[in-house]
Amino acid sequence: MIITIDGPAGSGKSTAARKLAARLEIPYLDTGAMYRALAYAALQRGVDFERSDSLAELARSVRLEVDCGPTHTRVRVDGHDVSEALRDPKVSEVTPFVARVQAIRDMLVLRQRQIGAELGSLVTEGRDQGSVVFPYADVKFVLDASVQKRAERRVQELVADGHDVSLQSVMQNLTTRDGIDSRQWAPLLPEGVAIIIDTTEMKLSDVVERLEKEVRARVSANSP
Ligand code: C5P
Asked: What CATH number was assigned to the domain covering residues 2-211?
């Protein structure tokens, strides 16, 4: 079973996807971590983020390993586990520049499909999972929330990780990212094709409840 959860940063999709995967006991794939890992490698090597060809070249030369379990996605770059470093605001800031390079998207879309084929069942989250990567997914969700709420959630996460950030700087980062990401957002799914949930006023535990309910309802409707 493939379940896709798409939405912008701070919509709650990462936590919700991870928790849903744990409840369903199937692997969880954080596709943002794959784009972030390449951005991290580009930062390390001092690649110019304005140069699509250099970024694509880097992506081809990096050994990217992705390990998915029901509670985690861990990513290794050239043998080093970089999973913790990927949440750094500096990485968040430059990742959309990597994600807008079509050659990189093509490469990662292929990898994501391979992971889905190998594992068989997956809760996968990102921007394009239900629209581009897994158009035949069994259940598709889109999560969204107001910019204010998304920024508040991101600040909480970053502060918990020991970063010193202001609400204003995070809001600024989200708004800029939304602008660059909107290209990837173009195929965002409409209500009916996907289940769209506005999480602004919801507790994350209620979001997970709702996702699980929707998935289980579909599974029982489809079983003989
Ligand atoms: O989801 P997360 O905030 O970790 O994603 C980081 C960045 O990776 C996004 O801002 C976007 O630029 C890119 N991304 C993407 N397509 C995906 C997942 C992430 O373009 N499927």
From this structure: 3.40.50.300
Q: Quick one: CA dihedral 112, 36, 84, 205, positive or negative?
A: negative
Ligand 1 atom closest to Cα of 129? 21
Helices 52-61 and 31-45 pack at an angle, to 10 degrees, of 110
- End-to-end CA separation in angstroms for the chain: 16
Pairing of strands 2-6, 122-126: parallel
Question: Domain ranges in the chain?
Answer: 2-211
C-alpha 175/C-alpha 112 separation (Å) is 27
Q: What string of DSSP letters covers 71-137? A: TEEEEEETTEE-TGGGGSHHHHHHHHHHHT-HHHHHHHHHHHHHHHHHHS-EEEEESSIIIII-TT-
Query: Over the stretch 182-218, which tens digit does the pLDDT of each residue have?
Result: 766 555 677 778 999 999 999 989 999 999 999 999 8
pLDDT digits (tens, 9 = 90+) for 74-104: 999 999 999 999 988 899 889 999 999 999 9
Distance from Cα 222 to the centre of ligand 1, integer Å: 32
Please state the length of the chain. Answer: 224
Pocket of ligand 1 (CB under 6 A): 9, 31-32, 35-36, 95-96, 99, 126-128, 177, 181, 184
